[in-house]
């Protein structure tokens, strides 16, 4: 498209500017920019984050990687698309890298949340009840906030297609729901197997102690997986060269956000103590929720992975009563702490 005989490079004059808005590979985009610079043509990346129906309304978020002078030239053009523009770095490709971090957080949080929601269904909870209580506390994330209520209403939370991968041009994010339902042998939006409900007008019957504990475990499971995903993806971004403050600013206002990310990332960006959970207690809770999943036949791939990783962190800690997860993830990723700021 760029360097073919009839590509962009052949037809552009010196001083031209290309704005690449694809979800590309940062290193490849940077190589293209370097080659174009030899011809006097500038290229920057401005990755787009938003549901397809929001973009035409000016609701997109742009993640930009560009040197100062070129960004100044491009900004008036970018503002035609949206006013929400985040500069993610001075290097071409930094915007695409930020989008990769955000998308990874969104996708893994979505998968993990849906797995836990299916477990909740198999334990007797309705999807409507879960959508309500999961959005009240530490489990809240983009999926609980947007997707679960949409599924309750029988709607699609997004029309975002997956045509760029190997699943085929008709594949959509919503297909993930059907896959997880098949693995667990249940339906998320079905009323079959729910806790008994009182008829309209009857006094509300409080949840039993067992039901309340199940709710707590589901919330803890999602909060834990969100915390792990935030640490892991943020450290990947830092190792690449993104600043933690930029990751915090962008992710927490884009689709990768969760209650955990909105608590943790600002602390990491400011170099403050990020010890926001008791790791030992969290592992005990995850053991219980994984045992429940085994008993009910609901796979918890993400939650079980988090449990295993945190057990590793606990075993590696010199003081098991005070596990520093930030240090653990930083060491595991070999990310340098100065990049946090």
Automatic annotation (TrEMBL):
GO molecular function per UniProt: NAD binding; NADP binding; oxidoreductase activity, acting on the CH-OH group of donors, NAD or NADP as acceptor
Protein name per the record: 2-hydroxy-3-oxopropionate reductase
Transmembrane segments: none
Stretches assigned to the 3-hydroxyisobutyrate dehydrogenase-like NAD-binding domain: 93-164, 217-318
Keyword Cell division: no
Domain 6-phosphogluconate dehydrogenase NADP-binding residue range list: 2-88
Keywords annotated in UniProt: NAD, Oxidoreductase
Superkingdom of this protein's organism: Bacteria
Region entry Disordered, spans: 191-213
InterPro entries in UniProt: 6-PGluconate_DH-like_C_sf, 6PGD_dom2, 6PGDH_NADP-bd, HIBADH-like_NADP-bd, NAD(P)-bd_dom_sf
Matches recorded under PANTHER family: 3-HYDROXYISOBUTYRATE DEHYDROGENASE, MITOCHONDRIAL, 3-HYDROXYISOBUTYRATE DEHYDROGENASE-RELATED
